[in-house]
Amino acid sequence: MSVERAEDACFERARLAAxxxxxxxxxxxxxxxxxxxxLSISSDYVLGxxxxxxxxxxxxxxxxxxxxxxxxxRRDWKG
Length: 79
Hints:
It is a single chain. It contains three helices and two strands. The protein is an alpha+beta fold. Strands 1-2 form a two-stranded antiparallel sheet. Strand 1 (about 20-30) and strand 2 form a beta hairpin. The mean pLDDT is about 90.
């Protein structure tokens, strides 16, 4: 796999390792009130793994090369 594709594939795992992701929605109307919630917590987050280290190892494992730039310097990283 190319390093570019590996970076894309590993980015989501690193993002989930940085913290839980989810949403809560509450609404009301003539039919009553309703709520929705969704929460994603990765085992990497629970175990306290460093997202940058996970990203580096994942990219190397998939492509045989290190990432072209560190995770924390990517424009799309919001941590």
